[in-house]
Design a protein that fits this description.
about 375 residues, about 25% strand, alpha+beta, Penicillin V Acylase, Chain A, six-stranded antiparallel β-sheet
Length: about 375
């Protein structure tokens, strides 16, 4: 995975991002404008009206994000609206397209700490599952703004945030889709989900500050967050436009796929049929974590994310039901596109990241000091 380092003011960071990934951004923009109207059966003018609202919400979240996105547009020789579209396309698809827009947008994640890990630190992993024609071109954005935390985020070029983030406070957040999206009467426009993750990457000092922000930010769709920090504090959050459910751990680990884990949030969601791929992947991931309790480190985290155990058949069976998803065996151009495992160690952070299915991927490792050590 290519690493794109950006430093300075947000506009400077955006220009660097845009220049370094110009060709990929232009392709992503073309793909989005060509695909989304047909998928959702709406006009480009409908999308443009949505973009005006998303742009307003992005500025409400943090005014500097508009500056950065304008910088990305300048560096990539694209329009500002094009970059807004890239950063809000998931929200547009979910709010306007409903469940048909999220069929393949599935992820799996875990976090473990203290007695569950080999060195009594924090190890967490996240698989990004989705359409391979976009996510196969991910880059690792290594950003250091002047007034926020240094962060690492694997992104589609042109995105300022995505659903795996880690920062130099020792905070980590993963995002997963939740059931088949919000019930139609609650879906709307808010801060794009990936911009929310960018905010967490820059400004969350730990789980509790992240929870405070998530509770108050306007999200027009639904999302599950798995949050953890270097202290071993952790939580899962199911957020809808009208409800927030916080799930605290009862063991030294958490597992998350795509179904609701508590009843209170279900009236706000379009529910999947039971059992679904999410339920099978959850059982397989939980089995892999439990099998490695007390021994989980970075390498075992990569093994957990690579598991092909399919709980629907009770054996190894690479498929859409396994945490390392192989939907190509079902004739679909989707599956696991990127895998990441984070180790929040005693003295430094390590992120192992790979494109494609983790079972065969070429992993790279990025090390990052905690901010207190840097200073």
């Amino acid at each position: 995975m290519p690493v794109v380092r950006v430093r300075g003011t947000r506009r400077e960071m955006g220009i660097q991002h845009g220049r370094k990934t110009k060709d990929l951004i232009q392709r992503a923009v073309k793909q989005a404008w060509n695909t989304i109207p047909g998928l959702l059966k709406i006009s480009k003018s409908d999308i443009s009206r949505d973009l005006e609202q998303y742009s307003d919400w992005i500025s409400r979240c943090h005014s500097g994000f508009r500056d950065e996105m304008e910088g990305v547009a300048e560096g990539a020789r694209a329009r500002y609206d094009d970059i807004v579209l890239l950063n809000s396309q998931y929200d547009i698809m979910l709010s306007r397209g409903g469940e048909r827009a999220v069929e393949t947008l599935l992820c799996s994640a875990f976090a473990a700490w203290q007695r569950a890990t080999r060195y009594r630190d924090v190890v967490a992993g996240h698989n990004d599952d989705g359409p391979r024609f976009t996510d196969q071109f991910l880059v690792l954005l290594d950003g250091k703004p002047r007034d926020g935390h240094r962060f690492l985020i694997p992104v589609v070029p042109g995105f300022i945030g995505y659903h795996t983030v880690v920062n130099d406070a020792g905070f980590c957040a993963f995002g997963n889709s939740l059931e088949n999206g919000p019930v139609p009467q609650e879906a709307g426009v808010g801060v794009p989900m990936y911009v929310i993750f960018r905010y967490l990457a820059e400004f969350a000092d730990g789980v509790e500050s992240a929870l405070q922000f998530i509770n108050n930010v306007r999200l027009g769709i639904v999302c599950s967050f798995l949050l953890t920090d270097r202290t071993g504090n952790a939580a899962i959050v199911h957020k809808t436009p009208n409800n927030v459910a916080v799930i605290r751990p009862t063991h030294d680990f958490l597992v998350l796929t795509n179904h609701a884990l508590v009843e209170e949030v279900k009236p706000h969601l379009i529910m999947r049929e039971y059992p679904s791929s999410s339920h099978f992947r959850f059982q397989s991931m939980e089995k892999a974590v439990k099998r490695n309790l007390g021994r989980i480190d970075l390498n075992r985290g990569m093994d957990i994310m690579s598991t092909h155990y399919d709980s629907s058949v009770g054996r190894d069976n690479p498929s859409g039901n396994t945490p390392c998803r192989h939907c190509e065996y079902e004739g679909r151009l989707s599956g696991t596109c990127r895998s990441g495992v984070v180790n929040l160690g005693k003295r430094r952070i390590k992120l192992s990241i790979a494109l494609g299915n983790p079972c065969i991927a070429q992993w790279i490792e990025i090390k990052m000091n905690y901010r207190a050590i840097d200073s």
